[in-house]
Amino acid sequence: MRHASRLSCFVLAGGLACLMGVGLVQAADPYPSKPITLVVPNPPGGLVDTSARLVSDPLARVTGQSVVVDNKPGGSGNLAYGLVARAPKDGYTILVSYSGYHIANPILMDKLPWELKELTPIGLITVATNVIAVNPSVPVNTLREFIAWAKQNPGKLNYASQGNGSVSHIGTEIFKQLTGVEMTHVPYKGSGQAIQDVLSGQVQVLITTPPSVMGHVQNGKLKALAVTGKTRHPSMPNVPTAVQAVPNFVATSFSGIGAPPGLPPALVERLNRELRRVSELQDIRQRFGESGGEARWSSPEEFRKLVEGEINLWKSVVETRKIEIN
């Protein structure tokens, strides 16, 4: 019995040693050691999907692993957000977040398959400036003239958006609140039909990304009154900023990287460091500019504060303007 007990002890000790050895090997596995999946809440095409595809190749180069873009549109972005919120906290499934969903959904929707606190912020990818475009039938050439004319002609203006709760929707409502201008909201499912109806004159105003209307502005089918960033947009250098006429009016959208809840700090730091390396590549900065955005790196804490600030701003506008998502 004594020998059996001693043998059992040896077997048990050996088993523990083996398990500890396996654990040490696993702990020593470098990250990443397999492909990373970028989950995108939007369909292919558009700035969010473009952001994911622009960073996927250089991210693969700097990490040494392939990076797969997985489009999961549906449920106003909630399908993708919920999937990442429930994913393993190992850094292999991460989210390309979009401000239109990231900010609006927690404010406008009662039930979500994810919570904002469940997502680990990694950092920004890009920030996109918008442009205020109008149909040529509106007899103005500057934003100040537009504000004055709109106030003198109440009820004559309709504005298009890319849908309830979108950046173009909330951005225009912020503009209305700051200026006292009243316009009727006409929501669309995306920018394509919205732009067509502004071109035809069925609606008169749209806030959207510069690349989507630049050609129409150049051939005179639309007028660009102002860009909504803090500085002029490189693709529209002659178009002034909105803040010159309306102080504090900035309406931009962003894409960033989020991860499942509880992602270990070491993985957060690693992913953020690689994003910074990607954002500093000259060809990436150029390609983001061509697509209407600006490559922008941030720390996880800066990203978190940006989201919190935007939520507070949007929430005040949603409550004041009594906005609902239908």
Can you characterise this structure?
By secondary structure, this protein is α/β, with parallel strands linked by helices. Helices cover 46% and strands 18% of the residues. Strand 1 (36-40), helix 2 and strand 2 (67-71) form a beta-alpha-beta unit. The model is unreliable at 1-28 (pLDDT under 50).
**Number of E-state strands:** 11
What is the N-to-C order of secondary-structure elements (H for helix, E for strand)? HEHEHEHHEEHEHEHEHEEHHEH
Structural class: alpha/beta
What is the rounded distance between the termini? 76 Å
Radius of gyration: 24 Å
Q: Tell me about the biggest sheet?
A: 6 strands, mixed
Mean pLDDT: 88
Apparent shape: globular
Helical residues, percent: 40-55%
Task: Detail the topology: elements first, then pairings.
Layout: H1 2-28, E1 36-40, H2 46-63, E2 67-71, H3 78-85, E3 93-98, H4 99-102, H5 104-108, E4 120-129, E5 131-134, H6 143-152, E6 158-161, H7 167-179, E7 184-187, H8 191-200, E8 205-208, H9 210-218, E9 223-227, E10 252-259, H10 265-279, H11 282-290, E11 293-295, H12 300-321
Parallel strand pairs: 1-2, 1-3, 6-7, 6-8
Antiparallel strand pairs: 3-10, 4-10, 4-11, 5-8, 5-9
Helix pairs in contact: 2-10, 7-12
Provide keyphrases for this structure.
about 325 residues, alpha/beta, six-stranded mixed β-sheet, five-stranded mixed β-sheet, 11 strands, globular, disordered N terminus
